[in-house]
Amino acid sequence: MSLSVSRRLAAVTAFAVAGLFASAAPAALAAPTAVAAAPTPPDIPLANVKAHLSQFSTIAANNGGNRAHGRAGYKASIDYVKAKLDAAGFTTTLQTFTSSGATGYNLIADWPGGDPNSVLMAGAHLDSVSSGAGINDNGSGSAAVLETALAVSRAGLQPTKHLRFGWWGAEELGLIGSKYYVNNLPTAERAKFAGYLNFDMIGSPNPGYFVYDDDPTIEQTFKNYFSGIGVPTEIETEGDGRSDHASFKNVGIPVGGLFTGASNTKTSAQAQKWGGTAGQAFDRCYHSSCDNTANISDTALDRNSDAAAYAVWTLGASTPVPPGPSFENTADVNIPDSPAAAVSSPITVSGVAGNAPATTKVDVNIVHTYRGDLVVDLVAPDGTVYNLHNRSGGSADNIVGSYTVNASSEVANGVWNLRVRDTAAQDIGYINSWKITF
Ligand code: DTR
Ligand code: CA
Ligand code: ZN
Ligand code: ZN
C-alpha cells in the first residue's frame, strides 16, 4: 500500500461544492454562492416510518410472502409508495424495464422547484429477495426515504437544489433498476446531479452506524448529524459497491449513504460503542424469511431516518463547509510488543497554505488485539506532540476513529507523524492507515 495524497479529494470537493452549493451550472467549478440559512431539518416520526414497514409487511403477506422483482408484491409496493407521493404533490414517474424475463419498475418522484441544474437525489431499493418480506432489506431504506419526501411536502420546503427521490427495482438481482435509470440519463442530465444519497438496510436489529466514505462532503454531512446526537460512526466497508449508489458513482456522480450492517459480525469494540451483541451478525435475518417487522431496531431506524432528513435539508438547502484537503498513509507499520520503542507512520504535507486549523481531523485505523496497551500521538512537523489515545479501552480490539486536534499553532506543510507505542506485554498489531484533514 502506498502513500496517497488525496488531491482527488480537493478536486471532488470542488466538484461537489460546485454541484451541491453553487447556483452556477455544475459544470463550472463556481465558488459556492451565499444562500439563506438552511431551514431546520425536521424530526422524522418513527411511527410514520414503521407504518410504512407495516404496509410493506401486509403487502408481502397478501402476495405470496415477498416483494421480489417480477412478483405481485413488488408492484403493490411501488403502487403504495406512488400513491403517497402523488397525494403529497410530487411529480412521479414510473419507469419500466425488463430483467430475468419480468417487468421491473423504478419510481422517480420530483419535488417541484429548486435549481434544475443542481439535483440532489435520495433513493432506496424497494425490492426484497424472494425468501421474505424484506423489511430491513430494504423496507427500512424505502420507508425512510418515503417519509423524508413526505416531510419535505409537509414543510413546503423550498430548497436551493432540485430534490428528487427514487425507489429502485431489482437491486437484489444486481442493481438492475438503478443501473437502468442511470444508463438512460442523458449525459447532460447526469451532469446536473449534485449528489445521490443511498439508504439500504438502515434498521438492522443488531445495528452498526456506518457512513459511506465516498464523497467527502456528503460523508461529512452525515457525520455531523451523528456527532450532533453523540453517536460514533464507522466507515462503511461491508460492501463497497454492493448497493444502488454504485450505479451513480460509476458515472461520476458524488454519492453517500448510511448502512447498519448485514451478515458481518459485530465486534466487541463495536458492541462497546453501539450496544447490541458482539459476535452476532448485524442482521441475522439478512436475505431470510425472518426479515420481518420484528427484524428492526427502532433506535437505528429512527436515527437513520432523521439523518436522511438532515442530509436532504442540509445538502439541498444550504452550503455546509466542505472538508479541506487531506493526506493519507495507507502503508502498514508493525507495532512491536512492549518494551520496544515507538513506531511512526509519516505523511508529508505540501501545498497547504498557512497553519493547520483548530479543527484538524485525524482519522486513525490501527489493528491491534488490546487497544489498552497503546499510546497514540500526532507529532507535528516541529515535533509538537498531540496525544490522541492514552491506553484507554482495555482489552478491546483495534483503534478506528476520528480525532479533532487544535493544531492552529502548527504550520501545515511538513512531515507529520502518527506515533504509536505498545506499553504492555503481549498483544501486537499494526498501523493500517491514517489520514490528516485540514
Ligand atoms: N447489497 C445489499 C446489502 C448490502 C451488503 N453490503 C452493503 C453495503 C452497503 C449497502 C448495502 C449493503 C442488499 O443485499 O440489498
Ligand atoms: Ca426521529
Ligand atoms: Zn439484499
Ligand atoms: Zn438491500
From TrEMBL:
Residues 321-438 form the P/Homo B domain. Residues 1-30 form the signal peptide. Transmembrane segments: none annotated. Keywords: Hydrolase, Metal-binding, Protease, Signal, Zinc. InterPro entries: Galactose-bd-like_sf, M28_fam, M28_SGAP-like, P_dom, Peptidase_M28. It comes from the Bacteria. SUPFAM superfamilies: Galactose-binding domain-like, Zn-dependent exopeptidases. Belongs to the peptidase M28 family. M28A subfamily. This is Leupeptin-inactivating enzyme 1.
